[in-house]
Structure to design on (925 residues):
């Protein structure tokens, strides 16, 4: 299939812009103008539409395929969210208007304010910032808040503790914020090794980052001890809320003792992933961190008017040009309002029900390194298949693609050998899940009887097993004429 | 209330049976009773049509009817309908990051084309698959420079978008990077002054073209001086201006970053936007973010994959080049569709027509008594000095139906009377004539 550049015909254009008078450029002068052309293709609107429509058909997506990608919460994204976010009153609003006349942007400010209060209540926290653009950006916000807090107390701290099952973004964010990272292993129950944690815990520790439930799908059984030990050393507790979908209305980070939590609105609150983004990594904090939040804060005056508050004197500054990915915030607000209290609780109950159903049904066929009730996802290992027939997690993933299922997350968490991390989400029906289970059983059986077929999968996709080593070695990153 | 869980009572019982528990609540037994929520006080759910009505009403409490001359880095350019049509395809919208190439060739090829277009527009060798926005992209560029030469001081021109500079200052506070701001000369970059800061402790220099006040410049010799001292040259660009203006590549910048909003993103009250980054060949392995590369599959078919992943957080953890994971992929898709539709000719025309409108407005404003148009080379944005506070003028113009421009005082308190005014191809000559009449009325 050709690239859009290869469809280019000199003189063709997809949009009629009307007449343009080149002579206007004289006032700038040649020295300041580009000497080369822009290198853009010359194609018609129909060429463009056919090309990208065809590309779209080469993708798996939630709307076309079951997509149980662990840690990513690939739930259904209600269409009304899209419709509301593109209303002209939202999509057409210039953000600088907020700085010139707050009266012109009351609808958007109210939406941000309302969503913030929903998210504060859901997490049991005191303050919220919507600025972070994605989960990892929320983590960095949390780390900067942590650092500002310790600075204000004259604390000299340089370490952040992260369990080894954590998302790679956790240690990367801590490092980006200037901290050294100390990693703590998981224990045999899938929680944190408390002995090792106790050894690592001292006054140099600025914070502890925990995913809850953790990436093994477990609600940290040791959470109370961890909170208590961290408190003793004035270390803050950071909750990576990527897995919040498991505990809506069942537990709140604030009540447990966390000081900071980031939420991935593109996971828990049903905003679409867009092939990798945009997301939104809203951060909520406990009372003692409210004064450090990024500005401007959207506040409500006594007369009910919303305004931008720049007055936080300890604010860390700002992490985004304006208020974060506003159109993503709109989608999440619509979703939360539609589901309401009972609907959100139902989300977590069904997510956990679906995950446990898969866990029990597949347990005879795949190893479960941590075999106990899970939360919203379960982590299998393909080590049995590797041992018996040399079939790896990646072969199982490719065989699933051949059968029309997006694979689970593979080789993560790193602490599980040959990991297959399955997160079905609450929006999938029993029939879909049963079909997936059947496919996984079929693959487990084939691993015994005909492993070669799995090694050669997939056979019905646009490409099969691209050579990733060659991609990194030859480094062809752009089209060249 | 709206419900997206399809389970029937019967199915729930079958599933609980299979699991071997009596109730769904049994599955939450790991959460101790002492850790259960102290409250969960949210309103009851509503139906889809109730929610629609509520948010429709809320959206109407925003004033979007103004004829807008706001720019300052974020512009109301025309977006062809085909951009929305393609970018709303579920197959793009509801996919995840393309980790599995067999199930993601659509997204991967689109990103490869996007990288190619951003490289061609900027005249640099390589681009990544997107960052969050212009400001965060600038920080990432600075972090790359610091990583590559190990120095800790960065010179940033005061004409660089103040919102970007604020983000950089926030990020830089814990990592021992010193930011030195170089003052402008009127509205233009003072290149001599910038050069006076160059020494062996300086890691990078950051300039913007056109700058926040609209001033157009050529930084080729500045970047050359920087290179002599092993200082990384970072160029902040406005992508649409590259339809006509000298490119970062032609000026021999090392890294170029920009806010990609003008490439088909609606203004949406601040996001989602698009962080653009392109680099000289020698920086490619230090670049943050996803990168798509071309390769072949096991049958020799051309295939696209995420590559150079050894830089990234999921492999390198605390040693990664950045913590970025989710980016702005769907915005990058919008950009590639937008750029394909406009193409070579349309993109250049969009730039020229925007500039024509700005020039017409500039000449009209010169004739208004008490208004001084500040001197300098400009593209589609320029700065005027008003007889009184620009914020008062901007507010008064709203009452006349015009978002008149960005008061510089929002970010430069020492410039109370300056207004930064932008035009795009969407503004008509009639809009401009009405704008100048309203301005005369407001100022009289």
């Amino acid at each position: 299939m050709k690239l859009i550049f290869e469809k280019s015909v000199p003189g063709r254009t997809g949009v009629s812009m009307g007449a343009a008078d080149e002579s206007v450029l004289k006032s700038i002068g040649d020295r300041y103008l580009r000497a080369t052309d822009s290198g853009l293709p010359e194609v018609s609107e129909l060429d463009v539409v056919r090309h990208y429509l065809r590309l779209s058909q080469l993708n798996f997506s939630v709307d076309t395929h079951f997509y149980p990608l662990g840690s990513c919460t690939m739930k259904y994204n209600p269409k009304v969210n899209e419709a509301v976010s593109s209303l002209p009153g939202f999509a057409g609003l210039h953000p600088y208007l907020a700085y010139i006349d707050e009266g012109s942007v009351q609808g958007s400010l109210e939406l941000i304010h309302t969503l913030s209060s929903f998210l504060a209540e859901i997490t049991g926290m005191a303050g919220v910032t919507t600025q972070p653009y994605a989960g990892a950006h929320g983590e960095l916000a949390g780390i900067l808040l942590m650092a500002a807090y310790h600075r204000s107390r004259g604390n000299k701290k340089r370490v952040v503790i992260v369990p080894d099952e954590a998302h790679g973004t956790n240690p990367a964010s801590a490092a980006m914020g200037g901290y050294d990272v100390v990693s703590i292993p998981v224990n045999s129950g899938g929680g944190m090794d408390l002995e090792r944690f106790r050894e690592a815990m001292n006054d140099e520790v600025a914070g502890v980052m925990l995913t809850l439930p953790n990436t093994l799908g477990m609600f940290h059984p040791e959470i109370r001890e961890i909170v208590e030990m961290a408190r003793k050393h004035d270390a803050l507790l950071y909750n990576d809320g990527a897995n919040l979908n498991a505990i809506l209305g069942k537990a709140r980070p604030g009540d447990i003792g966390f000081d900071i939590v980031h939420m991935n609105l593109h996971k828990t609150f049903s905003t679409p992933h867009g092939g990798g983004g945009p997301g939104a990594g809203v951060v909520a904090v406990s009372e003692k961190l409210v004064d450090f939040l990024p500005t401007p804060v959207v506040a409500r005056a006594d007369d009910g008017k919303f305004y931008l508050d720049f007055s936080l004197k300890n604010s860390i500054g700002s992490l985004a040009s304006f208020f974060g990915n506003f159109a993503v915030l709109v989608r999440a607000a619509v979703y939360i309002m539609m589901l309401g209290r009972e609907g959100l609780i139902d989300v977590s109950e069904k997510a956990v029900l679906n995950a446990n159903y898969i866990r029990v049904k597949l347990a005879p066929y795949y190893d479960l390194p941590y075999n106990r009730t899970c939360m919203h996802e379960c982590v299998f290992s393909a080590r049995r298949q590797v041992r018996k027939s040399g079939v790896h997690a990646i072969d199982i993933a490719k065989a699933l693609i051949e059968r029309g299922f997006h694979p689970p997350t593979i080789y993560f968490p790193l602490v599980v050998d040959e990991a297959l991390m399955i997160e079905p989400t609450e929006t999938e029906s029993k029939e879909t899940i049963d079909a997936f289970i059947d496919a996984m059983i079929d693959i487990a059986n084939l691993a015994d009887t005909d492993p070669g077929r799995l090694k050669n999968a997939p056979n019905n996709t646009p490409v099969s097993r691209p050579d990733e080593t060659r991609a990194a070695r030859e480094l062809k990153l752009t089209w060249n004429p | 209330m709206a419900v997206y869980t399809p389970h029937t009572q019967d199915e729930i019982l079958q599933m609980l049976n299979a699991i071997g528990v009596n109730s769904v609540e049994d599955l939450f037994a790991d959460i101790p009773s002492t850790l259960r929520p102290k409250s969960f006080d949210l309103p009851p759910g509503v139906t889809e049509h109730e929610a629609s009505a509520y948010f429709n009403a809320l959206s109407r409490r925003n004033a979007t009817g103004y004829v807008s001359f706001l720019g300052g880095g974020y512009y109301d350019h025309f977006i062809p309908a085909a951009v929305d049509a393609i970018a709303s395809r579920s197959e793009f919208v509801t996919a995840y990051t393309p980790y599995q190439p067999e199930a993601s060739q659509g997204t991967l090829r689109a990103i490869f084309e996007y990288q190619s277009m951003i490289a061609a527009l900027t005249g640099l060798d390589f681009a990544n698959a997107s960052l969050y926005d212009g400001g965060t992209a600038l920080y990432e560029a600075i972090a790359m420079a610091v990583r590559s030469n190990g120095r800790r001081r960065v010179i940033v021109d005061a004409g660089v978008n103040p919102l970007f500079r604020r983000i950089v200052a926030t990020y830089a506070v814990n990592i021992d990077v010193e930011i030195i701001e170089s003052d402008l000369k009127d509205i233009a970059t003072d290149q001599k002054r910038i050069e006076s800061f160059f020494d062996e402790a300086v890691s990078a220099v950051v300039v913007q073209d056109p700058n926040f006040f609209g001033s157009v410049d050529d930084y080729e010799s500045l970047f050359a001086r920087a290179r002599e001292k092993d200082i990384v040259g970072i160029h902040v660009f406005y992508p649409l201006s590259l339809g006509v203006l000298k490119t970062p590549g032609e000026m021999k910048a090392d890294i170029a970053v920009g806010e990609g909003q003008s490439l088909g993103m609606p203004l949406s009250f601040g996001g989602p936007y698009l962080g653009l980054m392109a680099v000289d060949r020698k920086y490619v392995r230090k670049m943050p973010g996803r990168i798509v590369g071309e390769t072949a599959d096991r049958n020799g078919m051309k295939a696209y994959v995420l590559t150079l992943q050894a830089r990234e957080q999921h492999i390198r953890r605390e040693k990664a080049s950045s913590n970025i994971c989710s980016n702005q992929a769907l915005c990058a898709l919008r950009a590639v569709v937008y750029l394909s539709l406009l193409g070579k000719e349309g993109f250049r025309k969009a730039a020229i027509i925007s500039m024509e409108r700005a020039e017409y407005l500039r000449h009209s404003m010169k004739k208004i008594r008490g208004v001084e148009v500040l001197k300098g080379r400009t593209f589609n944005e320029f700065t005027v000095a008003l007889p009184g506070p620009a914020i008062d003028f901007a507010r008064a113009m709203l009452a006349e139906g015009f978002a008149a421009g960005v008061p510089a005082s929002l970010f430069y308190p020492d410039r109370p009377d300056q207004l930064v005014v932008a035009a795009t191809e969407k503004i008509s000559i009639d809009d401009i004539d009405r704008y100048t009449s309203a301005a005369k009325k407001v100022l009289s």
